[in-house]
Each structure stands twice: as structure tokens, then as C-alpha cells.
Amino acid sequence: MKILVAMSGGIDSSVVAHMLKEQGHEVIGVRFTLWSDPLAPPMAQILPSKCCNAQTIARANQVAKDLDIPLHILDLEEEFKKNVVDPFLEGYRKGETPNPCVGCNRTLKFGKLLDFAEKLNCEKLASGHYARIKEEKKSNGTISYTLLEAMDASKDQSYYLYGLNQSQLSKVLFPLSGLEKSEVFALAKKYGVPFDEIHYQESQDLCFFPEKEPEEFLKRYITDSAPGDIKLEDETVVGQHKGLPFYTIGQRKGLGVGGLKIPLHVVRKEVDSNTVYVAPNGADLKKDLYASDLNWISWVPPKNEPQKLQARIHSIGERHNGVMNHDGKSLHFRFSKGLRGIATGQSIVLYRGEEIAGGGVITERMQD
Fold it and tell me: Which residues, 6+ apart, have CB-to-CB distance to 78 below 8 Å?
């Protein structure tokens, strides 16, 4: 089989390339260049926690050389800026907390790369993502593809993949789907993938700015943000904020609110009045949310019929029980218990056991 492998230069994608070559496939590598913050401090650009740094580029080149496979470089800088970075900044300007990785997977990693695979007449696109795809032949002869959680729950990336559709899943391979991370490292040693086991760091956080947290990046691009009041829900002013974009729903540390003995959490941000609202621990827990921009993967739940499902509102952490109802355009989810940190702009991802049913972008939290 002729397979295009997305080679970021990380250990995972490097092992994937070796695995597929060893299995006898015709392997072609592709590495893409994305937009990175030109205004970032020069010293911060060398942080090893980010993808597409000098180390990962060198590793991708070395793996391609060792396997004697072609390695294409695809320039996606313009598309990345337009489809990922700009919506990220616009979301923060509107008081939201956007999740750029979902859109990147949908439009670029499994959008532009699939187009490139087709151009090269490749049958499949393989990546180092930790997730599983189940293929099932229906009675009418069609094939359905179901997205499942990875075997290694600690590395599962299914949350970021809920936006994929049947056409995309039919052309994608996740060769690491049944492996534990420790097994992947063992394979890397076996194949001679170059990495320093002691100092190796996997890419983490968002890739288009060098800092661990987005605050400094936001300061560089959202320059019209103004300080304002931090208030309790009864409108009592308890402090001053530095600017709405620099606060996230559920945040407790760094609020600069003094003189109160009880811990306070950010519960909402009001753009019109430039106000951050906080509430005591417990009072900030919410059960209900609405979401739009829905995507169902292999099972479309009936409209206006409540379904008991589990959901995640963050990429990591436990799944929570609740009841979902949708009308085709938006969904309502009510959790069985109150949660902290439900933020507009983030994604809610829905599960039926180990199956990722789909999800959407959170548009509203209902006040209890």
C-alpha cells in the first residue's frame, strides 16, 4: 500500500514511518511548515516543548534518510494563520476560550494533508495520533468508520479528533492505536530513532507561540485590551483585572483579589462592561451548556430525543455523565453534577463507552 506519513519529527510519527516501512508499504513522508509568532522573543523560540523546532526537523530528515523515503515539505503557513491563529485571537477578543487544535486537525492535518495524499496517489494518510478507528461493513454493503479512544488512556487524543468525518476516517491510519507509550519508546530504540531519553520532551501546549501559557502571545496581538473590575455576582467590586483575554473560566490563581478568606474562581467574562465575574468555591459549578457547530461521526442521535452519554469539556480529565438533546443545529447537555471551567469557545466531546460519538463548540453556559 502507498501511504503518506505525517512526519512532525516527534518520536511517535518517526516510529510510525519505521513500522509501515517494515510492514512492506511504500512510505512517503511529509512535513509541514506552520505559522509561528514573528513577534516572540528570540530566546523563547528555542524551547524544546514546541513542535517544528530544529531538533524535530533534524529527526524527521534523519528518519527519512535512514528509511530511504522521500520527505516532502508542505507550506501551510498561510492556511494555518487564517484557519487556526486568527480564529483563536478573535475568540479571545470576544471573551471566549477557543480550542485551536480541533480546527487544525479538521482543516489542515486531515484536510490539506489528505488532499496532498490524493495528489501523490497515496491510499492512506498515517499519523502518530493516539486513537483507534473501527471499520464495520453494513448489511447494505457500505462501510462505517467509528472513532474510538486509544488503548493508552494517558495519551488518548480522541478529544481533538471529534471533528473528523466518514470520508476522512476512511483514508486515515493510526498505527499506534493499540500501543502503550512505553512500547512506542521501545520501538524507537529498536529502530534507532535518534532521541535523548533523558532530556527528550514531547511537544505540548499550543504550537504557534513559544510560551507555555497564551498570555504573553495575547498581549502581543490584542493590544486594545483594557483593565476593568472584578466583581462578585451581586456586583460587589473585589479587584481589578488586567484585561479580559488574560483570564479563563475556572481560574483561581493570579486574580489579585485580596482581603477575602474564601477562594474565588472566574465564572464568566462580560465583554460589554469589561468585567470579570468571580464566585466562591462551589458557587461556580454549573450543570448545563449549549453547543453548536455539531459533528456526528458514525452515529447520529435522533433529534429531540434525550440520550444518556458521557462528555468531556477539556482534552484531559475524566468523562462526566449527563443527558444530551439536540435539534440538528445545537445541543443541550445537562451534567449529573456541577462542573467547574465550562467555557464558551471550548469543545464538548460526547462518548458512548469507548466510542467518540461527536461533539460541538460550547456557546452558552446556563446559570443555575
Answer: 35
pLDDT, tens only, 192-225: 998 766 445 555 567 888 888 888 999 999 998 9
Per 3-state DSSP, the chain is made up of helix, strand and coil in percentages (nearest 5) of 25, 30, 45
Respond yes or no: is residue 52 known to be catalytic: no
| Span 225-280 CATH architecture | Roll (2.30)
- Whether 2-128+175-191 and 225-280 share one fold: the answer is no
Residue 207 known to be catalytic: yes
- Which option is the CATH number for 2-128+175-191: 3.90.226.10, 3.10.20.30, 2.40.30.40, 3.40.50.620? 3.40.50.620
Confirm whether pTM is higher than 0.70: yes
**In the chain, count of helices (H) and strands (E)?**
9, 17
Which residue among the candidates 51, 101, 104, 122 is catalytic per the annotation?
Answer: 104
Write down the pLDDT at residue 199. Answer: 45
Tell me which of 105-119, 150-164, 205-219 is least confident. 205-219
